[in-house]
Specification:
By secondary structure, the chain is an alpha/beta fold. It has 14 helices and 13 strands.
């Protein structure tokens, strides 16, 4: 059967406009992505993870992908603090295969906590996390580890015979519980989760937006997105904590907090503009620095701080970010609130967010700080940022030379 050109044209009109097709330029750059959902730090809270994924329409009640061609960006720190990091990673890996069949994509980025697990820095690994790795062989593996410890102590401690081994072992088992050996094997550079981590990027650019965990400082802004990831993976493989590298530097992309916490001065804004220009971007989305429950736009939405504290450890908040051709929207459960394009709109936006969670004292404190008259010696930064700093991790470090990165 033949159709006239008029009939073919009519069919196209009735079908609606042709959707842009996402195009992968390379592993770090995509264009033509119709919808992006960005989810911040999850810290081992599987139930909260499922909750925010469902609120964005990315999964159904059975945990299957329903996001179509949406690109999901998880900006790192799936691990630590909560007990279910392993469940979240396993689910995302499975979900990524389902998404690709629907022309969607899941970008899982490296956060400082993923790097810490690979490197053996286990300060924030919860008891439940180790328990998730236990097997029927865990006691035997723990005993073998203890025997290796004793062998080392005999060879290196002159006063070994004076040590109360019963008391020492009780203290040692607090640091090396059942499941510790399996966890370390799985997170080693060649283990199941170490191998998963080293396949992930540190930063990606989708359309005009860069996503990463901590941020891009002037110290690293001349590196390409590819080079940032390659240097991070190389540092993880060498794994020498005595050397400052891109993965443990407080100005590095996994730890840097400046984009989320620095005062929004004209001088720092110039640095940000230069960074965005170098990467051909108009916005940077970061996690890492908890906001207390709000997807927070900064520098007239050229930065979005998106670690809203989803995990129970940080308040079980629900805020996540959606980017479409219509603009940036924050999703809070069933509520959707457009992000203000300019800083002048942040008060009204914050009041709307508070209405979605009237029990959140940190959001109310943020609003009060925003409305307070500026201190005489503080200048008019107007950032309205509350006490977002974790307090237990790397402190914010001021840019040494604001305005550079040309």
């Amino acid at each position: 059967m033949k159709f006239s050109p008029f009939v073919l044209l009519l069919s196209l009109v009735m079908a609606g406009p042709v959707q842009a097709k996402a195009k992968k330029i390379d592993d770090y750059h995509w264009t033509g992505v119709d919808r992006v959902v960005a989810i911040g730090d999850l810290h081992g809270d599987y139930e909260q993870y499922l909750k925010v994924m469902a609120s964005a329409g990315l999964i159904n009640g059975k945990g299957k992908w329903t996001g179509g061609d949406t690109h999901l960006v998880q900006t790192g720190d799936i691990t630590d603090r909560g007990p279910d990091s392993r469940k979240i990673i396993d689910h995302l890996v499975k979900l990524a295969k389902q998404a690709r069949k629907k022309r969607g994509y899941i970008h899982m980025l490296i956060g400082n906590h993923e790097a810490m697990n690979v490197s053996g820095d286990l300060r924030y690994v919860s008891e439940g996390e180790f328990k998730a790795f236990t097997t029927r062989n865990s006691a035997a593996l723990q005993q073998r580890q203890w025997e290796s410890q004793l062998q080392w102590m005999r060879a290196n401690i002159l006063t070994f015979e004076e040590i109360d081994l019963v008391a020492y072992r009780a203290e040692w088992e607090q640091r090396v519980p059942l499941g510790w050996v399996e966890h370390r094997n799985a997170w080693s550079f060649s283990g199941e989760y170490g191998s998963w981590a080293k396949k992930n990027a540190v930063a990606v650019k989708l359309n005009d937006t860069i996503f990463l965990h901590g941020g891009i400082s002037a110290k690293y802004c001349k590196l390409s997105l590819r080079s940032i990831t390659e240097q991070a993976i190389a540092a993880l493989e060498i794994n020498d904590p005595t050397v400052e590298t891109i993965i443990n530097d407080s100005l590095g992309p996994l730890w840097y907090r400046g984009l989320a916490e620095e005062d929004e001065t004209e001088l720092f804004s110039q640095t940000l503009d230069n960074i965005l220009e170098r990467y051909g971007a108009s916005r940077i989305v970061v996690g890492h620095t908890p906001t207390g429950g709000v997807v927070w736009p900064r520098f007239d939405q050229r930065v979005v701080a998106n670690d809203t504290g989803i995990a129970a450890h940080y308040g079980s908040n629900t805020g996540i970010l959606e980017l479409t051709a219509e603009g940036a929207t924050a999703i809070y459960g069933e509520q959707r609130i457009p992000l203000p394009v300019n800083n002048s709109g942040r008060e009204g936006y914050l009041r709307a967010v508070i209405e979605t969670n009237t029990d959140n004292a940190r959001l109310k404190a943020r609003l009060a700080k925003m409305l307070a008259p500026p201190a005489e010696d503080a200048g008019e930064t107007g950032n309205g940022d509350a006490d977002a700093q974790d307090g237990q991790e790397s402190p914010v470090v001021t840019e040494p030379l604001p305005g550079i990165c040309r």
